[in-house]
Design goal:
- With 107 residues, this protein is mainly alpha-helical.
- The protein has one domain.
- The chain is 83% helix and 0% strand.
- The chain is elongated and about 55 Å long.
- The relative contact order is 0.11.
């Protein structure tokens, strides 16, 4: 069993306890803290990626969104810079999605 599978298994056990009426202030606070720490890490990742994207945008005078659309259509070629830029953009989108989920959890 992988570490991810073990974590999912543990979370399912906690969910089962809670569904049966079990409550724990320690678990509640711990989960809140984990979510808050994950949000901080995601915000840090997003800022780092935004800086990387900004450098490409300045270099090529093109927004990352416009670049990515053109890149996906095959209009930008396959230069190493463009491949790297597209990867950073995809990572930024992923972090942005993760933040939306985490922020919804804290609302």
């Amino acid at each position: 069993m992988t570490a991810s599978e073990q974590t999912i298994n543990r979370l399912q056990h906690l969910e089962n306890f809670y569904r049966r009426g079990y409550r724990s202030d320690i678990i509640d606070r711990s989960i809140d803290k984990i979510i808050a720490l994950e949000k901080i890490a995601a915000q840090r990742d997003k800022l780092d990626l935004q800086e990387k994207l900004r450098k490409f945008e300045e270099k090529y005078q093109l927004s990352s969104e416009d670049f990515y659309s053109k890149f996906r259509k095959g209009e930008m070629g396959d230069a190493l810079d463009f491949v790297e830029w597209s990867v950073f953009y995809e990572m930024w989108e992923s972090v942005h999605e993760r933040l939306k989920i985490l922020e919804a959890e804290l609302a």
